[in-house]
Amino acid sequence: xxxxxxxxxxxxxxxxxxxxxxxxxxxxxxxxxxxxxxxxxxxxxxxxxxxxxxxxxxxxxxxxxxxxxxxxxxxxxxxxxxxxxxxxxxxxxxxxxxxxxxxxxxxxxxxxxxxxxxxxxxxxxxxxxxxxxxxxxxxxxxxxxxxxxxxxxxxxxxxxxxxxxxxxxxxxxxxxxxxxxxxxxxxxxxxxxxxxxxxxxxxxxxxxxxxxxxxxxxxxxxxxxxxxxxxxxxxxxxxxxxxxxxxxxxxxxxxxxxxxxxxxxxxxxxxxxxxxxxxxxxxxxxxxxxxxxxxxxxxxxxxxxxxxxxxxxxxxxxxxxxxxxxxxxxxxxxxxxxxxxxxxxxxxxxxxxxxxxxxxxxxxxxxxxxxxxxxxxxxxxxxxxxxxxxxxxxxxxxxxxxxxxxxxxxxxxxxxxxxxxxxxxxxxxxxxxxxxxxxxxxxxxxxxxxxxxxxxxxxxxxxxxxxxxxxxxxxxxxxxxxxxxxxxx
Amino acid sequence: xxxxxxxxxxxxxxxxxxxxxxxxxxxxxxxxxxxxxxxxxxxxxxxxxxxxxxxxxxxxxxxxxxxxxxxxxxxxxxxxxxxxxxxxxxxxxxxxxx
Amino acid sequence: xxxxxxxxxxxxxxxxxxxxxxxxxxxxxxxxxxxxxxxxxxxxxxxxxxxxxxxxxxxxxxxxxxxxxxxxxxxxxxxxxxxxxxxxxxxxxxxxxxxxxxxxxxxxxxxxxxxxxxxxxxxxxxxxxxxxxxxxxxxxxxxxxxxxxxxxxxxxxxxxxxxxxxxxxxxxxxxxxxxxxxxxxxxxxxxxxxxxxxxxxxxxxxxxxxxxxxxxxxxxxxxxxxxxxxxxxxxxxxxxxxxxxxxxxxxxxxxxxxxxxxxxxxxxxxxxxxxxxxxxxxxxxxxxxxxxxxxxxxxxxxxxxxxxxxxxxxxxxxxxxxxxxxxxxxxxxxxxxxxxxxxxxxxxxxxxxxxxxxxxxxxxxxxxxxxxxxxxxxxxxxxxxxxxxxxxxxxxxxxxxxxxxxxxxxxxxxxxxxxxxxxxxxxxxxxxxxxxxxxxxxxxxxxxxxxxxxxxxxxxxxxxxxxxxxxxxxx
Lengths: 489, 98, 475
What we know:
The complex is a heterotrimer. By secondary structure, chain B is mostly helical. Chain B is built from three helices and two strands, in the order αααββ.
């Protein structure tokens, strides 16, 4: 048993009781990070972490993150630490500033252990497209299965008990889907709840800071720390922050759960369905009302293309700053155009380039009506329908993924006609900017599958309350690839 | 909508300041055909043409404006330290014409 | 065939806010390259734009002065293109929802009438970085990157170079007097792109547009357009076509010169900026911006005219905001505004020109100038007052001290004293009287001089001349 196998709250008690020191924790986390064989890290920050951890000598009893080691996805700007978003276009780039969330964590004396691998520029969902190659699922030592992405390294860090908390980002489902495939709690709060200042943008209207923990309580504690207004992010909400853990144990009596019929219908894995239904029965026993609701199949089928067009369009613009002139590798050229061409041709993978062309094409004046603006209109309809349901229900509750992590080769990032509702519905939370959390449901042949709970905007407290009830039902609190356990469903 | 061809896509790539190989162009072309079909299907959804294009996830306007106060600028050497080609405290490029 | 010129203008005005449009970097036009740069100005990944309040206030004031409808919800958009001077690869602007729309401005026509020029839109955006083109390379200075701009786009109502010049002059007066901008065309804080096409009188459809870029003075706007209209006119008369192209004005030859032939229009792939949520401007905020707007050019001019200044004098003083500000400081202290204006226009301007300094560096306070102007009203001669003025500046003293030091006293106008002195001089100079009678007018000047000399300058020269005239007749 290692302290790193504990949850943040358990670890906090041990730290306050001085059973373990931040330095010891950092040393062990670094050792585990160095021993990682899943390709989870861009950079392990041994010197920085040890130096900082050794300054932490007086425990802060009211600060749950004091001395807690954590990992950040490599699309968070970190001052003085190379940050590449797993893309060659940013190789060698050393930011001059910390992202708002990094600042907050540092201020609370959490210890940054490493920068995590990701799908290049966060534009992928497999964990296979970063410049360091494939990141593996820690539940599968044979390395035959996807980890999921784009926040792959962050997921591995928590699932392999290297740290109890990691930062990711979620534009379509980039934290909540890998959470399902790695048996973790993956939380994406309301758009504007956490400052995005310093998060490398992929598609700002869909981008969220999100994160992994191994328990719902830890997730709530983390939001206490991360949430709040930041004047450097004009989209940051002015709404006051709540004590998000304060109603965790209040149960779901009288709470209304909407289950989307089409998502269930498009899920073919019988065991997933059986366990999901078992969870519904258990929720009812706890006093919750559960209803199967039809969303509209056409709308749900539209999610992927809508997401694709909007996110690629915004991305092609956001990443236009990556031209080799101000930062990133410089290859020279006979003209400024050649300088840019060299940097961008060599810097981006072919997948990224194709997405940029699609995005750019969608934005051309003569194409906008049929591509970009049509996607924005479809988004509007999808969001309206989502909010309609949430006007009558506290939560939308569905399987987070149709199955356990797939084997390599079974999916591809290329557009396919087989876009499955069950595989893409989590983007609803990004379209509508709603808080959405994935928690583990059960293990199928030793591999995890999660469920997702989505609530109304800024009602994170209620969301954690519902998620905690599910966690109790599944018995999978503090699950990880190391802390393997049988669920209770 | 503009007719999609390999030439059109290569031109779009050039305007985005990168090269695409013939093979990548072909893959892209196929992806586009799929996407086009999906977007056409979306175009047939009832009410889609009447819906207001959505940029923000929800109504989130506010009244915040930044006070006009100058802050300390970046140290010049710091500001330029990530640039690959610097001369006399400025970024240097091949002569820009036009 | 007779052709009519159709002229439209796009004016970019750099605002003189303390910080930039979307970043908090200083905006003070530093000459040290890259010394006024924030993270956002170099497009570092993860930086985000936050709108500058003062820039919005300025834009509201200008929009109001141009009689525009003001949008109470601010929205921004991205204009996407790649260029060496564009750090983010896009410019944040207001393509779809300009802060002001549908306004107008009244200008004097060449014929002396007035004319309303309609203004399509005014919007806020950010400037690009500055490029220094050397022999075989280019250097980039990001100080200018992110400087707030307002762009003002006219409708094609202008018909000749003079109208265009007067339109720009009026816009310049508004942005300068609202304290939005320095409005200096020579320094690029007011930049003007003009487009002009010709069509036969009576025809509805527009001809082919030619754009003239970066004209750097008001006079050159007039000259460039009048030349360009002639050029297009002669092309059309000789049966040739006008090419769609961009030209520049060559000051030395007074001609427009081809820069590049326009190919297909660039597609800027505009879309709403997702990093700035819509900003609601309350009615109070907008009204307050308008109410607190400094007094504008036209209002000041009307005020000066009402105080008795001539139109020319008013315009001279108003041609420089600092000069007008100086003038107004003294205005409430003087008995005769015209007299003060005269001192400002002649003495002050003369001194500034001679010493090559600006009014801001001028050593005499407006209060003290007012005192000097008032002395003239009390009967001191202009020459005496000018001496006091010069003494004050040379010795850095007050008018009272100067007057004492120079021993300047009010001149005597009392007829008895003057007559006494005149009689004495006439009695002593019979030859001069004879000369005068023989038609030598110069003799009179000599005699006045003698009287002044004998009285050591204490007599008023005008009074002396008058009495002398009368006495000469009697002899």
